Amino acid sequence: MERSRLIREMEGIVGAEGVVHEHEQLRTYECDGLMNYRVIPDLVVLPESGEHVQRIVKLCYDEGIPFVARGSGTGLSGGALPVESGVLIVLSRMRRILEVDIPNQRIVVEPGVINMWVSQEVADEGYYYAPDPASQIVSSIGGNLAENSGGVHCLKYGFTTNHVMGAEVVLPDGSVTHIGGGRAPDAPGYDLLGAFVGSEGTLGIATRITLRLVRTPESVQTLLAAFDDTEGAGGAVSGIIGEGIIPAAIEMMDRLTMEAVEAAVQPGLPDAGAVLVIELDGPEAEVEEQFGRVKEICEENEATGIRVAEDDAERALFWKARKAAFGAMGRISNDYYVQDGVIPRTELPSVLKRISELSEEYRLRVANVFHAGDGNLHPLVLYNNDTEGEAERAEELAGEIVFACLDHGGSLTGEHGIGQDKKKYMPKMFTDDDMNVMQLLKCSFDPHRICNPGKIFPTPRLCGERPGPFHMHPLQKAGIVEQF
Amino acid sequence: MQTQNGVVEDLQEIVGLDNLHKATAEDAIEGVEPSLVVEPGSVEEISAIMNLAARENLTVSPRGGGTKTHIGDPPRRLDLILSTARMNEVLEHTPGDQIVRVEAGVKLEDLQEHVSGSNQMLAIDPPESGATLGGIIAANSSGPRRYKYGTIRDLIIGITVVLHDGTVARAGGKVVKNVAGYDLSKLFTGSLGTLGVIATANFRLHPRPAATRTVTVSVAGPEQAKQAAQSIVHSQVEATAVELHYGEDEKLLTVLLESIPGGIDHKTETATFLLKQFGEVRTLSDEEAEHLGPLAPSAVADEVVLKVAAPPVELDAVLGSAVDAAERRDMPHPRITGQAGTGVTLIRFSGIDDDSAAGFVEEMREIWVRKGGSATLQRAPLTLKQRVSTWDNGGDYLGLVRRVKEKFDPRGGMNPGRFLGGL
């Protein structure tokens, strides 16, 4: 279809103000939170309803035009990177909270709703939405769903996938389906919702999302413990977990990170080699006793200072410090690369040692922020783009760090996703067969590969290919299914 | 099926003489008898068997402990049972990481025994004893504790599967937090052997609770049952399970509480305070808890069990509709148990003619599917299954379920006919 006609058709669906087609304006959308990949899309369309999305996708399907969905554009793996000659479907105008159902502990939202709004909406009822990625003041629920976002409280409460209970999905052929039970549990059939959450926008677009709401805990206690080095802090983490305590959150920052955070938001962090922010929540008596034990364990591991949050304001300050960590790097470095790797928690000391060796070898500073409870590392590789070759060295170093994670039994990514950025590393974690079988799922949802194509997998699988000689499917033969 | 001698020899070659058996009547699934039962001892052997099955176009039904063969419709065809009985090794348990990797044939009890030394547990409590982890995943079995810990989909972190043609694929890993690649672990959860064979699985573990208490209150009827459950669900007590036992005489709402020794009294007091508006609240002794508590197993084996999944706040309507539908058919009051906090209700009856039973199931489907829920037969005599399917019609996602099945099992060799939509 000619571009001018496509623009007209799209305008027919969403109105002229919902279509961006001028080159300069399109540049706003050329990348997401990962800025080293940039592609200018052919067209940006901003739907206002599920019906708009359905019609846009149907048009793309009929015309064979690839499309990419984007929420707030805060993703850190290039998952919402546009495709050339493709349509970018931006969901930021779909920001309505559709239903609040406290009796069933559910809320139904449009994909563009900001994560934080959900908790704000139900706070007065004594409820909140548990997954809290550091980006929660800007990132959208649709984006969180696509990436299976984590956050600092997922050790106890789980990830996005444990909190999305149902979704209305526009499939890549423009049809609409409803997956997951929503309010009722255990929808019969395959766990399509479980497969869809975290599929990085490659299987379809969620247009209506049912989330689980969690009752606010009776008691919350937060402390900040300082240690001489990350080893001491790591020892305290192991001690706490080993005791059978599941903190709501347990986060670690190293000296370099603290330096940046202090410069950015002045939370008054102690002068230390590492700090832990530890939060416990739950019924009061339980929290009180375990909190006492957590303090003892920190002391046993030679904490140099423990500061307990006296009130919500101080607690908020601790969390502000932690959640500011990525952005704060700008205070101590021109440029930085955010890595996201996972290791089995017990491997922490050896992986930290390896990161420090790599940092020396590459002559680049690395600041470390961890979700220490679940082994999710966020090393921040600092570099200067103006120094020739440094950006490349930084990327290479970041790659080496994630390989170290794999060597220790971990994963390429804990919450930022594979997207565009890490697909080249996938063969280090998975075999060709692993990836081919995963792509059977892609083929089931998107046989023409028009939905966020080229992401996650280094080599796309052709969906038409059939291993071995072709046989008509028995169900097809028996007349149970017409056509696959 | 007339199994050709060549196939028998080839299978013997793969697993050894001792691990291939002629099927007996006991191996039948819903009246359909297989020819052979093969017991591979490794992922490689499973792969070789499936490869052979694809070449010879044999249909295969994976089997773990055999505790759930009553779930699902009769198979359309059945040549080979692939038993995971020999896949019974715990591959790795790292207490410090709170993870475990197992072969699919490991029995849940054995796994719990294995990890209990480290004061850990896999937080799943399905009703069947003798179930394997592979079977629990395939049938998505759960029990009362799902209220706190979720179902097996929330605990599984990695999987190895073997497809119909012997292709071996792995997804996830052995870390709790991981978003690399598609989550095949969840896709295979509840797939009932129709997508492939689950060969190994990795799980996150939880600490064993140091202190447990069970409190119970009698409720007068459906409305009170709902109110009592809602009072716990909307409180800050963080209960582990909220169970309903709803028979003709006894109607009890039971709450399982777990904590540390210093926290359990406080929790018990809170729960008691919340429930006392409904009647006298009792704390059960351990012995009583075994019979009445959330974890009590089903007492009758030969019965119809219909699982109704509905929004939790509809609990009163679910109970009302079941009692009403039974009454109108002159059936005795059904024995109803359920996870009142999550919206799962199990309606049990026995000794009912198939006409009434089929009418009952259809009526419940008519009501609860329309309200966004589902009604699935967990157990039923074959004669009833010939009248009504195990499954309702699902939702508008059925087409997608079919496409997934076709991609993963294009020749229809995996447990054909047992699943939703005749898959």
- CATH class categorisation of the largest domain in chain B: Alpha Beta
Structural class of chain A: alpha+beta
| Total helical elements of chain B | 13
Estimate the global geometry of chain A from the Cα principal axes.
globular
> Which stretches of chain A are low in confidence, meaning pLDDT under 50 for 5 or more residues running?
466-474, 480-484
Number of strands of chain B: 19
The number of distinct helices of chain A, counting runs of at least 4 residues, comes to: 17
Strand arrangement across the biggest beta sheet of chain B: 15-12-14-13-17-18-16-19
Euclidean distance between termini CA atoms of chain B: 20 Å
Largest sheet of chain B: 8 strands, antiparallel
Under the CATH scheme, the architecture of the largest domain in chain B is 2-Layer Sandwich
What pair of chains forms the biggest interface?
A-B, 103 and 101 residues
CATH class of the largest domain in chain A, named Alpha Beta
Give the low-pLDDT segments of chain B: none
How would you portray this structure in words?
The complex is a heterodimer of chains A (484) and B (423). With 484 residues, chain A is α+β, with helices and mostly antiparallel strands. Chain A is built from 17 helices and 19 strands. Chain A folds into five domains: 3-90, Uridine Diphospho-n-acetylenolpyruvylglucosamine Reductase, domain 2; 97-215, Uridine Diphospho-n-acetylenolpyruvylglucosamine Reductase, domain 3; 217-331, Alpha-Beta Plaits (2-Layer Sandwich), CATH 3.30.70; 333-421, Alpha-Beta Plaits, CATH 3.30.70; 424-484, no CATH class. In chain A, the strands form four sheets. In chain A, strands 12, 13, 14, 15, 16, 17, 18 and 19 form an eight-stranded antiparallel beta sheet that branches. In chain A, strands 5-6-10-8-9 form a five-stranded antiparallel beta sheet. By secondary structure, chain B is an alpha+beta fold. Chain B has 13 helices and 19 strands. An eight-stranded antiparallel beta sheet of chain B has the order 15-12-14-13-17-18-16-19, with helices on both faces. A five-stranded antiparallel beta sheet of chain B has the order 5-6-10-8-9. The two termini of chain B are 20 Å apart. The mean pLDDT of chain B is 95. Chains A and B meet through β9, α7, α8, α10 and α16 of A and β9, α6, β11, α8 and α13 of B.
